[in-house]
Amino acid sequence: MARLVVVSNRVPLPSERGAKAGGLAVALADALQPGSLWFGWSGRRSTRGSGTTHIQRSEGITYATIDLTEADYRAFYVNFSNGALWPLLHFRLGLIDFASDDYDGYRAVNRQFASSLLPLLRPDDMIWVHDYHMIPLAAELRALGITNRIGFFLHTPFVPPSIFNALPRSAELLTSLCAYDVVGFHTRTYRTAFLDCVTENFGIHADSDGRFVWRGHTVRVISDPIGIDAGAFAQQAVVAAAGSDARLLRDSLSKGGLAIGVDRLDYSKGLINRFEAIGRFFANYPQHRRQVSFLQVAARSREEQGAYQRLRRELDRIVGDTNGRYSEFDWTPLRYMTRAVKRDTLAGFFRLSRLAVVTPLRDGMNLVAKEYVAAQDPEDPGVLILSRFAGAAEELTEALIVNPYDSDEIAEAMHIGLCMELEERRERWQALNEKVTANTAGRFCTVFLNHLDRADTLPEKPRLRAIS
Ligand code: GDG
Based on the domain organization, do 237 and 309 belong to the same domain? Predict the structure, then answer.
C-alpha cells in the first residue's frame, strides 16, 4: 500500500489542537494511517522563511511544516489566496483585490512548498493536496521531476467560465490544475463548472467519466462530497447535551426554545442576510417572541482583511438594532458570540436546538448542516433550514431549502420549522440522517483515494516531467 502524503496550507499540529479542533483533521482521520505524512505551513512567520522544515510525530503520523516570511505570508495567504481566490470561488467578483505581485508571491510560495516537500517524498507516495491555496503545487512538483500520483481536492465551490475567467491569470491556474491526476469537487455542479472552463479555455471535452487528456497526461475529474464522522458526533452530542455547558444554556432559556447558527465569521456565510431575517421573523411572527432565542456562534477569522472587518462592524450594528428593537428585560432574541466554542459543547448545543439556520450565500459543502443532523435526538429532532447555495443542499434535500438572499423566506421557514409536527420532523430527519451517516468523512477519503490509486493504471498516462 502506497504511503499517503497530505498537503494543505495549514497543518493541524497535534501540539496545537485546541478548542476548534475539527475541520480537515477530522475529515482525513480515517485516511491518515501510521506512516502517513502531512505537510504544510506552520502558521508561523519568520525572517528565515521556509529554510527549515519542522518535524513532529504523533501516533505514527509525521507532521512536517515550514514557516513563511512576512512578505510571502501577505502575498500568498492574505492577498492572493484570501483576497482574490476566495471571493472569486464564492461568486463575489466585486470583492476581488488582484495584484500581479501577489499572484507571483502565491506561485513562489507554492514553489517553496514543492522544494521543501521534495526531499521527504518516496517514489510510490500518493500525494493528496487540499484547497485553493495550493492549486499550483502539482505543476511545481512536476517541474522538479516528481512523477507520483497527485490528487487535488477543492473545498470551496468552483465557478462557471464567465466568472472564473474574470480573474487575471486564471488560465494559468486552470493549466496548473491539469497537472493533477485526480481533481475532486464536492458536487456535480462544481465539477461541471470546472469541465466547462476546460472546454471553453482549452477546447478540450472530457468523456462521460470526467476524463480528459492534457498534454499527454490524463486528468480525472470527480465529485466526492465531504462528510463527517456522524456516529462519533452523535455520541458527542448525547454526552454534551447532558453536560454543564448545555445545562447552563438550557437554564438561561427558561421555558423558551433555541434556534442556532454556527459559522466562521465570513461574508460567504450569509450572516448579514440571516440577521436581517431574524429581525423579520420576530416582526412577522410576534407569537414567537419570548418563545425562542437565536444563538449565533461566529468565530472570528481572517481579521486582517478589510472585508472581514467591515462585515464584523455591520453585524455588530444589526445585532444591536435587532436586540434593541425586540428585547424584553428578561429575554434577548439574538445572542451573538464571536469566539470559538469547544467542539463537544457545540454538539450539545445542536442537540438542544429546535432549529438550525444554515444560510450561506455560497458554500463548498457546509459541514455544520451535517453536524446538526447527526446531533439530533431521533425521538424529537429539530429542523434544518439550508441555503440552496450550500453544496450540502445537493444531498440534504429534506431540509427546508431557502434562498439565503430572501430574508422573508428565511423568516417564514423559521416559523414553519418551529411549528412543524413531530411526525414530519421525524420523517425529514430520518431521510437526512441516512445520508449523513452513509456519506461520511471515511467514505469521502476512500472514494478519492481509490480514484487516485487507479490513476497510474490508465493507459494514456506517460508520466510528466514538467508542465507549465
Ligand atoms: C470549508 C468550506 C466545506 C465552526 N465554528 C466553531 C467550530 N466550527 C466548525 C464547524 C465545522 C467547521 O468548523 C466549519 O466547516 P464548514 O464546512 O461549515 O465551513 P468552512 O470552515 O468554511 O470550511 C466548506 C469545508 O471546508 C470542508 O470541505 O464544507 O464549504 O468553506 O466543523 O462545526 N468548531 C468549534 N468551535 C467553533 O466555534 N470547535
Answer: yes
Residues 251, 201: one domain? no
Among 265, 345, 368, 384, which residue has the most ligand 1 atoms within 8 Å of its CB, making it the best to mutate? 368
Q: Given this model, what pLDDT does residue 22 score? A: 62
Give the confidence band of 458 by pLDDT, cuts at 50, 70, 90: very low
179: which 3 cell numbers? 497537472
Dist CA 1 CA 368 (whole Å)? 33
Range of the domain at 427: 230-438
Q: Are residues 160 and 279 in the same domain?
A: no
Ligand 1 and 67: CB distance under 6 A: no
54 catalytic per annotation: no
One domain for residues 336 and 399: yes
Instruction: For residue 76, give the nearest of 45, 51, 47 by alpha carbon.
Output: 45
The pLDDT value recorded for residue 20 is 53
CATH at residue 215: 3.40.50.2000
Q: 232 is written with which cell numbers?
A: 462519533
Cβ burial 231-255 (10 Å sphere, 16+ → b, else e): eebbebbeebbeeebbeebeeebee
Q: Is the CB of 370 under 6 A from ligand 1?
A: no
Please state the domain count of the chain.
2
Closest atom of ligand 1 relative to the 22 alpha carbon: 32
254 Cα–ligand 1 center, Å: 30
The answer to whether the CB of 392 is under 6 A from ligand 1 is no
430 part of a folded domain: yes
Q: Give 361 Cα–ligand 1 centroid separation in angstroms.
A: 15
Ligand 1 near 343 CB (within 6 A): yes
Q: What percent of the chain has pLDDT over 70?
A: 96
Q: Average model confidence (pLDDT) for the chain? A: 94
| Gap between the Cα atoms of 125 and 149, Å rounded | 7
Mutate to test the pocket of ligand 1, among 271, 367, 384 (most ligand atoms within 8 A of CB): 367
Question: Is residue 468 pLDDT above 60, yes or no?
Answer: no
Reported as type and span, the H/E element at residue 138 is helix 137-143
